[in-house]
């Protein structure tokens, strides 16, 4: 059977969804593709390169159809929508955010999306350096939040955890009791953090 990066990525993503990142191995991918492991190594040299391929695939999915802001859409709306797209693309696969973090992403869609984001911010009055830092902060928040979200996926709030003395740490205990610091309404939590970052970018614009 002939294989290429596209078939490798498709198969590896299927296995990722079944086994998670820790269970994904080069041997498992080769077996599913019905090829010798040596044939797989011809295309990807090690597991990290395999993860790079998966991260590029996830990003390309998130960036599909991404265009510059339409008339009436401001930079905050556009960047917020982009962050939501990326989060959903990572959530579509088990451990998708962990795959994405630290990977070498060279997909042309990455550079196109980055260019669109920087251009959008520059048009809104951001110097390029400040725009780049803002985009990086938003990206790091989105990936980091989604890693935590996927780690806690399916967990139910446990109330105040053991070790939190309500008499000594009343506000911490209240935060756990009323809202849970790992709130299961992750959409709402993500939107709150997104609002904070975008508002902060707006306040510090060209300062």
Automatic annotation (TrEMBL):
Residues 2-62 form the HTH tetR-type domain. PANTHER family: HTH-TYPE TRANSCRIPTIONAL REGULATOR RUTR, TRANSCRIPTIONAL REGULATORY PROTEIN. It comes from Crossiella cryophila. GO terms for biological process: negative regulation of DNA-templated transcription; response to antibiotic. It comes from the Bacteria. It holds the Pfam family TetR_C_1. SUPFAM superfamilies: Homeodomain-like (SSF46689), Tetracyclin repressor-like, C-terminal domain (SSF48498). InterPro entries: Homeodomain-like_sf (IPR009057), HTH-type_TetR-like_transc_reg (IPR050109), HTH_TetR (IPR001647), Repressor_TetR_C (IPR004111), Tet_transcr_reg_TetR (IPR003012), Tet_transcr_reg_TetR-rel_C_sf (IPR036271). This is TetR/AcrR family tetracycline transcriptional repressor. The keyword Transferase does not apply. The lineage of its organism: Bacteria, Bacillati, Actinomycetota, Actinomycetes, Pseudonocardiales. GO terms for molecular function: DNA-binding transcription factor activity; transcription cis-regulatory region binding. Keywords: DNA-binding, Repressor, Transcription, Transcription regulation. Residues 25-44 bind DNA.
């Amino acid at each position: 059977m002939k294989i290429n990066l596209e078939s490798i990525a498709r198969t590896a993503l299927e296995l990722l969804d079944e086994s998670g990142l820790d269970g994904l191995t080069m041997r498992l991918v080769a077996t599913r593709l019905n090829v010798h492991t040596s044939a797989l190594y011809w295309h990807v040299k090690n597991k990290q390169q395999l993860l790079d391929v998966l991260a590029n695939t996830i990003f390309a999915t998130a960036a599909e159809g991404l265009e510059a802001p339409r008339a009436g859409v401001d930079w905050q709306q556009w960047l917020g929508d982009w962050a939501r797209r990326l989060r959903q693309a990572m959530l579509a696969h088990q451990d998708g955010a962990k795959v994405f973090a630290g990977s070498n992403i060279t997909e042309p869609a990455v550079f196109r999306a980055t260019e669109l984001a920087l251009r959008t911010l520059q048009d809104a009055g951001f110097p390029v350096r400040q725009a780049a830092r803002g985009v990086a902060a938003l990206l790091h928040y989105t990936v980091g939040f989604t890693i935590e979200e996927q780690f806690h996926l399916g967990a139910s709030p446990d109330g105040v955890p053991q070790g939190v003395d309500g008499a000594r740490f009343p506000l911490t205990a209240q935060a756990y009791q009323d809202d849970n610091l790992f709130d299961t309404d992750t959409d709402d939590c993500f939107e709150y953090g997104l609002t904070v970052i975008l508002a902060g970018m707006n306040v510090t614009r060209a300062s």
